[in-house]
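Not sure how to ask, but would you mind making up any protein sequence you like and the tokens describing how it folds?
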Amino acid sequence: MHIGLVERITVEAKQLLIDDTCSTRTAVVGVDEVGRVLTAFNYRSATPSRYFDNESDAIAWLREDGEPDSKDAHPDSAFAANEHFTAEMRGGVLWLECVASTEVDNAVAAGIVDRANQLSPSVCPPMLIRLNHLISVTEEALHTLATGLNIAALAIVGVETEDPVITAYYKQQHHPPYPTRHFTTINDAQQWLTKCR
């Protein structure tokens, strides 16, 4: 399925794609990270679905034999890790921890949005992000997080001098639709998130 430069997908269209059983696999082909973020919901589809940015990779995946690989599997556990972050649900809060000295570009931000949607597909939870000596975050990544995360509130925990500046910039320039605050301790962040539920 080619989506081109899609700008939005209606709730009804999302549900039709999730419920579709007319194919054994669905490859969604887009041209940018916006498409990846907008189609992140599709991991819940009745049959395996993956996003690609070129048609040849999509066709190769569709022609593969055997069982779906780990990228196709619906998440059975509450925890997942990749090279940039770990994420899990803890007591109704979506916890995300950046790997030490991570550089967050748009691909990493899209991965965070994808994982958040996987862990909490039907509930809008509060979220805690531990920066863990974050090196940098791009403008595109901040935009993806502001427009893609379906969360009730965001607590950003970091002890570096730049961390509260990053948080303030994120709020002022990208206007996330959820309350966002910086904290230096996890305990303070958890207490605030409890009030935001």
